[in-house]
Amino acid sequence: MNRSWNLLVALAAVLCYASVLTGPFLWDDRVLILENSYLKGAQPAWAPFMTDFARMALAEWEVTPFYRPLTLLSFRLDALVWGFTPLGFHLTNLLAHVGCSLAVMHLGNRLFDAPRAGLAAGLLFAVHPVHTESVSWISGRTDVLACLFGLGALLLALRGTAASAIGSALALALALMAKESTVVIPLLTAAALMLRRSPRSDAIRVLGLQVLALGTVLALRHQALQGLVPTLDLAGGLGHRLLLAPRFFAEYLGLLAMPFWLSVERHLALQAVPPLGVAAGWLVALAFAALLAWTARKAPVVCFSLAWIPLALIPVLNLVPLPQPLAERFLYLPSVGFCLLLAVLLANRHARILALIVLVWGAATVARNQVWNDEGRFWQAAVTARPESQAARLALGIHHLENGRLDQAEVHLVEAVRLAPRVASGYHYLAQLRLAQRRLDGAEQAYREGIAARARPEELLYRQFGNLAESTGDLPTALERYLAGPPSAALEYNAGVVLGKLQRWDEAALRFERALELDPFRHQARYNLLVALLESADQARSQGDLAGARKRYQYVLQKGRQHPEVQARAAQGLAETSP
Length: 579
Known about the structure:
Helix content: over 70%
Number of helices: 28
Structural class: mainly alpha
Shape: globular
Low-confidence stretches: none
Oligomer: single chain
Mean pLDDT: 89
Radius of gyration: 27 Å
């Protein structure tokens, strides 16, 4: 294989995505990266392997649990090397996409014994517009990393040696720790080994090791999440989801074939699927199954490429409920099969058609990346595509608010609350707008309306409502509002801070303890607990309760090993109160 082909595929990917290297942090990047204390070194490097992905960054929100420690670790390494500048994070995404594109090319070469087909597959994958959500969005890295290691596992499995079988299992473990959708890699490996007619002993060895790796990661996931799958009820019962799965499949096929008119809020189109839409989805799925059966004997290579698509889509067809049931980024791994299919059909006899597809897709990718390169343009495009999207309206309103365009912000924030009156974030940012308009009463009214509507997460509204009172110096009212909310580590912590300001140190210590019970990773609460106990000990000492003071000093001395200044103060107090 000509080495220049590697350069050609890599160059195609770089040319399509070079413009986003200067793009900002967008969407979930704020909480997953900019506000994530783990990336700032607040927790040990191994922490993501012991808890869920979202909890590390979104401790104060109701979140869906995911186990993706490798992705978080990659973010932390980026922050270590680049600081919190988006360029370095974008560069990592781009390099990973280049790696995936090259892996697709090599996979085509191995499976089809046709270098031109492999090159074509790599080029098609490099420029496919549906990949922009995964590559241009920093937080979309989960899919890119998972695909990179997943394809690595498959390529190693095809080598047929004992060492490569072990490497394949390790690569699969890494893929699973980037994103759980790579659970289908053993199925894809089995299909590839069948296509290549690998010896049964080799297949048993590599698949056995992959299953072992899968079981190991699932065990770690179960330990971290206290379960294997998130307990959501967002899409009806299993029967309802099975009925709709072919409609999702048809939607994804359409995006693979016609990757235009893209939208980050695409899932809204399937919120209420009419009966004709369901029937059309089933017709597409049945036709696809018939095509698979026909090509199984006539053209095994085509059959494999076709089969890749539904196999890779299994985790994202909403059979297990997903908080966002349809998204373009979910097509990153499934698109490998579609690119292989086009390459097999067009590379040898229809090279001009193939070249035209590469050029059109590349131009569409470059155009779409202009949206990802500017936050205002990004959210305006989302609202234009889906005006009924509360999330897009809210984000655009926040963008205008942060840039001082208060009138424009009000239009979108009011509409966001109207579209989703049970979502707390709309009320919160509407209150922030009222504060920017110097309307304290309007801000308080927004929080009251959200609490009355029982908007979720309720904790957010009570916390911010309390913060509003605290910012005006009304500590008793702030404390009352914190304590009125639902059980929450953030509310307990804030109540402890206010109690400390009120010199009620024993009560403050109790609140910090409760915060830690609800969230063991709230490290500031642990430190504040020690400080509160020291202050409480000093109070007890001044009141003549030396025994009580010594007890508190001893506790702080024992638990404050990570804080030398706290330990030193506790040791001095203990020495001064000892008989």
